[in-house]
Amino acid sequence: MNNKVIIIAEAGVNHNGDYDRAVDMIYAAKAAGADYVKFQTAVPELVISSIAPKAEYQKETTGENESQLEMCRKIHLKLDDYARLRDICREVGIGFMSTPFDLVSIDCLAGLGMDYWKIPSGEITNLPYLRKIGVRGEKIILSTGMSELSEIEGALEVLEDVGTPRSNVILLHCNTQYPTPYKDVNLRAMSSLSSLGVSAVGYSDHTVGIEVPVAAVALGAKVIEKHFTLDKFLPGPDHKASLDPSELAAMVSAIRHIEEALGSASKQVSESERPNIEIARKSIVAARDIKKGELLSEENLAVKRPGNGISPMLWDSVAGTIACRDFPADTLITFE
Questions:
Q1: Which of residues 206, 237, 262 is at a domain's end?
Q2: Does residue 243 share a domain with residue 96?
Q3: Do residue 207 and residue 296 come from a single domain?
Q4: Are residue 237 and residue 327 in the same domain, yes or no?
Q5: In a domain, 1, yes or no
Q6: pTM, full prediction
Q7: Same domain, 331 and 258
Q8: What is the enclosing helix (H) or strand (E) of 108?
């Protein structure tokens, strides 16, 4: 991890099934500074039954006249598009990822050399799916939306049983409501995920804006995933809860600032502030003209800037001694 937060720009299905738009999203994610651009790979008929209803947010964004299956048929790319998108990512210089939603899609992505398998929240209780990815023994990022801790533990045990150790798994705290109400985010749940012995914990965000993922980084998230779109007003289920390219760039910039600002647990003087010690701290000075041989006391001593003389913490070592020479008013008292 090298202490760098991994930022995943979630293109998802915001290309609306348009390959050229998907390519444009790769360039936009790269320009924003993301580490990875991630798509969603699915054969809709293998994922969604004809009787599956839409989620409420999908009804709000795409209407109720079509089924969830009909909606997803419109917004998914062809399976052979993903190898081409992977190649473009390599040319552009951004990591490629895609989330498979069915077993055929896992096979499609298996040969594309992804750094991580991304398992979405909805598959955390899908035993055949977990086994098919877990048996590969590769690195996994697992979203945990809609899950109790016991269900996450169960998924980890499945992955372990078929060959993927917990040290290969990153857990993402997540709430799957689009957009997520702030009161339901519960970022502190990341600490519970950390107790499960995985390699790292992160956060997959569905709130409006960028402040919550930035806060997640401040709380220790090592991976941030966030939906983005080229145009929030495009038709489709996820656009309205996504960032536009300028907002994505702002989030990346804020996260990079926060990860740099976190520093270490060591409390010490930084090099940038070291010159301020002399300016802002104080020294023991003569409160008035002091003659050689005069007793130094509260009557003729004061504490003032600059801080390059005797520290006021040594007041008791100075008061009660005899002036070794004349000290004009406002000059530093020195040991001689």
A1: 262
A2: yes
A3: no
A4: no
A5: no
A6: 0.90
A7: no
A8: helix 103-110
Determine how many CB atoms are found less than 10 A away from the CB of residue 257.
12
β-strand 117-119 against 95-100: which pairing, if any? unpaired
For 322, the domain range is: 269-336
- Angle, vertex CA 9, rays to CA 7 and CA 74, nearest 5: 155
User: What is the residue-wise DSSP string for 256-303?
Assistant: HHHHHHH--S-----TTTTTHHHHHS-EEEESS-B-TTPBP-TTTEEE
The burial of 27, by beta-carbon neighbours within 10 Å (0-12 exposed, 13-18 middle, 19 or more buried), is given as middle
Residue in this structure with the two tokens 């099934």, named with its chain if needed: 17
Residues in CB range of 136: below 8 A, 6 or more apart: 110, 117, 163, 164
- pLDDT band with cut points at 50, 70 and 90 for residue 323: very high
Q: Do 277 and 214 belong to one domain?
A: no
Is 35 in a helix, a strand, or coil? coil
Residue 174, strand partner residues? 204
229 vs 2, 119, 239, 268, CA distance in Å? 29, 21, 6, 43
Structural domains counted in the chain: 2
Please give the Cα distance from 258 to 217 (Å, whole number).
7
51 with 194, same domain: the answer is yes
- pLDDT for the residue 129: 98
Instruction: Tokens 């016991």: give the residue.
Output: 150
CATH number, position 320: 3.90.1210.10
Q: Contact 109/82 with Cβ under 8 angstroms?
A: yes
Q: pLDDT tens across 237-293, in order? A: 889 889 999 999 999 999 999 999 999 889 999 999 999 999 999 999 999 999 999
Q: What does the mean pLDDT of the chain come to?
A: 96
- CA atoms in the 13 A half-sphere facing the CB of 181: 2
Per-residue confidence (pLDDT) for residue 1, from 0 to 100: 45
